[in-house]
Amino acid sequence: MNLDAASNPEDFDRYSRQILFPRIGIEGQRKLAAGTALVVGCGALGSVIAETLVRAGVGCVRIVDRDYLELHNLQRQVLFDEADVESGLPKAIAAKRKLETINSQVRVEAFVEDLSHRTISRLAAGVTVIVDGTDNFEARFLINDYAMESGIPWIYGGCIGSEGQSMTVVPGQSNCLNCLMVDGPPPPGTTAGCDVAGVIGPAVNMVASIQSAEALKILSGNVEHVSRDLTVVDLWLNRFTKMKLGNLAEKVACPTCRQGHRAWLSGEQATTTAILCGRNSVQIKPAGDAAVDLVELGERLRRHGEVQQNEYLLKFQLPELLVTVFADGRSIISGTDDPARAKSVHAQWVGA
Q1: Which CATH number does the domain housing residue 339 bear?
Q2: 22 lies in some domain
């Protein structure tokens, strides 16, 4: 947002009801206009968060998402519609186009990339707050490492079934994610995903709203009002719980925020595959920088099957599998949740 223009009261007319809220006011609105929020993941949680922050007048909302839209997303990803699914666009690009029609005063940046230890410093450069819209703990632990290293606050959120939880992490002032899970993320297959437990839209919207409110506190200069607790909700059982964390970091001698370990940020902890929630799909990540020429790849694959592509991705249909290749070298192999099979398919059709 143009801060010189935004300093005029009439440029804030659209935010008049928000400005009337005394905890924000005109000065808080100016701070929102000067802030940048990084939303990692633009699926269920992320799409709600991104839209809320854009409507609130955050100066720049930067969206990072690795995936594309499918019809089953629409049950809970409220920013999108059937036309977006038909377009075949990545979520980040579809979100940017939609959000720019909602608030032209806000700069919306879209990155069709996977968050990794190689990309996070670039993608998070200059941001005021990071908001978690991901569906996996590896990304969250990476964000947590980066937050501890950079001093940038971040807001964790997760949702499954009718339950959800959120926690705000302010480096140097609060506990971090690793304080809660000192042994690291749960091993693959030990926790139910949305493909097993399902998820209802109201629970998504509740958690995303909690996260968005926390982000607005930080962006408007009201860090002292952020929650220091873990908030847990279950909308089906009507349970709302605040778990007091106290001095948990000291009790567990947190390796991240007390001992300074950065295993995820350094790349010591990382994987090249990820089973995608509710998708019967596996993502394959290149080991290094491996941009793909989608035009050349499309010409090669058309000799073997049906190909659909745009400037962001290519889809190659096999008898039982769908191979989606992104320009940054990632592939999503749909039709299997077996990483070994997905790697084999990727090597055969895209390259080792």
Answers
A1: 3.30.310
A2: no
153 occurs within a structural domain: yes
What beta strand segments (E) does 235-347 contain? 239-243, 273-276, 281-284, 306-309, 313-317, 322-326, 331-334
The last residue of one of the domains, among 266, 283, 306, is 266
Range of the domain at 230: 35-266
Catalytic residue numbers, as ranges? 194
- Asked if residue 180 and residue 107 are part of one domain, the reply reads yes
pTM for this prediction: 0.85
Task: Say if 12 falls within a structural domain.
Answer: no
Assess whether 321 and 252 both reside in one domain.
no
Residues 128 and 226 in one domain: yes
Cα–Cα distance, 113 to 105 (Å, whole number): 25
- Based on the domain organization, do 163 and 289 belong to the same domain? no
* Per-position pLDDT tens, the chain of length 352: 544 444 555 679 999 999 999 999 999 999 999 999 999 999 999 999 999 999 999 999 999 998 889 898 999 999 999 999 999 999 999 999 999 999 999 999 999 998 999 999 999 999 999 999 998 888 999 999 999 999 999 999 999 999 999 999 999 999 999 999 988 887 654 455 665 578 999 999 999 999 999 999 999 999 999 999 999 999 999 999 999 999 999 999 999 999 999 999 998 887 666 767 667 888 888 766 567 889 999 998 998 889 999 999 999 999 899 999 998 888 999 999 888 788 888 878 887 5
For 238, half-sphere exposure in the C-beta direction (CA atoms, 13 angstrom radius) is: 0
Structure tokens at 26: 């005109």
Contacts of 4 (CB under 8 A, 6+ apart): none
Cα distances from 215 to residues 145, 238, 325, in angstroms, run: 19, 25, 33
Q: In this structure, is residue 39 part of a structural domain?
A: yes
